[in-house]
Structure to design on (391 residues):
């Protein structure tokens, strides 16, 4: 179903019913672990039912998921504050509510805000380190100090500091939705959206920490509504011409939009060639959607599938290494065939390495100087043929 037909078939009242402030209450249909038991990651596939939402998204877009906080952490904060949870507190929007409800649904309760840290430093009987680190020229030192620290740590470590429930929530920020790239096409799965998510858990300061939204989806969303609302990513849509070849680089959960692209192109009967670079630690337990992608190769939908398994041999192999191995073919697709080049995933390392490798391929395969290669890649960007969704 295209966006146009979705809108045409939906009464105006229904379209106006759900907004960012009033997201659609989706229902969890599937919560399945993709990674094997021996994997170092808990990678999940989620399917949500969108029946009756009256909205739409395109492949390449994201959905905002509005999580609730971990009830156990909420209860611990309430106990540490010396409160009952039934106290009335203000919300950033709307009528006042109980402290427990506010901490569950309205406020971010993990990341310490500057206001909260200042209040701790001012009121604590002994917090000289924190006071020193809050100086404007100590930002880097403060970041290092705060790694793995949450609001609850400061409340527990400084029992001399007392906050009223209203004071406490006044030091917090709003609980924000999390954006996830859609991993499915509405044309293939009408009234559904799929996500691929790494469930975040780690230990610090003797405590098990959990990602707010990933643990909400994995542990607490099977029997409660999952509020969602679409977020358009115009810069990351498929080429308008279905005959255009595409090269997709999406290691780990970065493969999400490319699974959606392939579904869309299959249903649409698009003739453009598709090439996917995927990467993860181990082929045996981390090949997310491996069966689907292998089937796409056999069907001819995927012309090429190149996988990098970083831990399956002594030398670490990443997607950029697979690009270098296939440099001549990538150059042919880009320069002779007009392919579009897509990258999705980690911004800090992977996307930078892929970008540097792409420029080197253009330079060496195209017989260009460094400056000419950079100009070529920048032109790919301005022509909207090099698109990135990195985070």
């Amino acid at each position: 179903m295209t966006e146009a037909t979705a809108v045409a078939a939906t009464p105006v009242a229904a379209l106006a019913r759900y907004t960012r402030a009033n997201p659609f209450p989706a229902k969890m249909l599937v919560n399945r672990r993709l990674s094997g038991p021996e994997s170092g990651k808990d990678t999940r596939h989620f399917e949500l039912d969108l029946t009756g939402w009256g909205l739409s998204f395109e492949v390449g877009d994201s959905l905002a998921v509005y999580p609730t906080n971990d009830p156990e952490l909420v209860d611990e904060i309430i106990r540490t504050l010396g409160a009952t949870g039934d106290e009335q507190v203000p919300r950033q929007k709307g009528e006042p509510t109980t402290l427990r409800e506010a901490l569950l649904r309205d406020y971010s309760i993990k990341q310490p805000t500057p206001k909260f840290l200042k209040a701790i430093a001012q009121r604590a009987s002994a917090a000289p380190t924190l006071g020193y680190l809050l100086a404007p020229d100590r930002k880097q030192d403060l970041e290092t100090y705060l790694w793995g620290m949450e609001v609850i740590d400061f409340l527990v470590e400084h029992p001399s500091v007392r906050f009223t429930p209203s004071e406490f929530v006044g030091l917090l920020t709003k609980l924000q939705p999390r954006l996830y790239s859609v991993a499915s096409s509405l044309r293939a799965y009408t009234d559904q959206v799929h996500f691929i998510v790494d469930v975040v858990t780690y230990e610090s300061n003797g405590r098990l920490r959990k990602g707010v939204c990933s643990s909400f989806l994995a542990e607490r969303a099977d029997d409660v509504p999952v509020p969602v609302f679409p977020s358009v990513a115009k810069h990351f849509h498929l080429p308008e011409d279905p005959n255009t070849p595409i090269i997709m680089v999406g290691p780990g959960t970065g493969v999400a939009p490319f699974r959606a692209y392939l579904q869309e192109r299959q249903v649409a009967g698009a003739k453009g060639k598709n090439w996917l670079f995927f990467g993860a630690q181990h082929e045996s337990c981390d090949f997310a959607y491996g069966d689907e992608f292998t089937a796409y190769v056999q069907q001819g939908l995927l012309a090429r599938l190149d996988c990098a398994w970083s831990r399956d041999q002594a030398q670490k192999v990443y997607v950029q290494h697979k690009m270098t191995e296939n440099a001549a073919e990538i150059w042919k697709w880009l320069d002779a065939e007009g392919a579009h080049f897509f990258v999705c995933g980690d911004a800090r390392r992977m996307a930078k390495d892929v970008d540097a490798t792409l420029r080197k391929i253009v330079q060496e395969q195209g017989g260009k100087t460094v400056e000419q290669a950079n100009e070529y890649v920048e032109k790919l960007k301005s022509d909207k043929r090099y698109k990135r969704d990195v985070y």
The chain is about 40% helix and 20% strand.
